[in-house]
Every structure is written in C-alpha cells, then in structure tokens.
User: What shape does this take?
Amino acid sequence: MSDFVLTIFDLTRQDPKTLQERTLKLGEEAGELAQAVLTVTNAPGSTYKSHTLADVREEAADAAIVALSVLAQTCETREEFEAELDRLMTAKCAKWQEKLKDDVSTR
Ligand SMILES: [Mg+2]
Assistant: This one.
C-alpha cells in the first residue's frame, strides 16, 4: 500500500472533524472540482473564471483525499483501513469493468 494511504489514515485520526463534517467537506471539494472542470471546458456561465487542467488535477486530488478520509474514519485501525480500501477498490473497479463490457456489448 502506498505511503500516502497510511498518511491519510493518520491525518484523519489527528483531525477532529466528525464524520458528518468530513462528508460535507467532500461535497465542498466536489464543488471546487466541478467549478474547475466547468471553467476548463468553457461551460456557459463559467468562462469568466480562470482555471487550468492543473487546477482540475489538484481539485480531483483534494476530493480523492477527503473521500479516502471518510473511509478511514469508519475504520478502527490502519490495517482495517488498508484491507477495506483494497477490498472495496477491487470490487468497485471490477463492477465498473463489467458495466463497461455490458455497455460495449449493447452498442
Ligand atoms: Mg480544493
């Protein structure tokens, strides 16, 4: 497991946010990501802002970190967090892969 994953677990332990506060923070970061994407793709009403693909990458990273922190907060130990993260990512990626296969076969 990458070091940053365990760092996210450790930082989550040190940060006093409640699960609700952390989840609201995820919504905030998702909004910032949406704003950056809307600007970069010249969406109507968003062209007065200035964002770049670098901003999109940064906001995606922020959202991913907070999402992982929400997951970390539901786990008691680093080991449980690592195991759950691995289990869920494997299962969810497999589900996504199956969905893509289904989508391609119905085209
Ligand atoms: Mg952000």
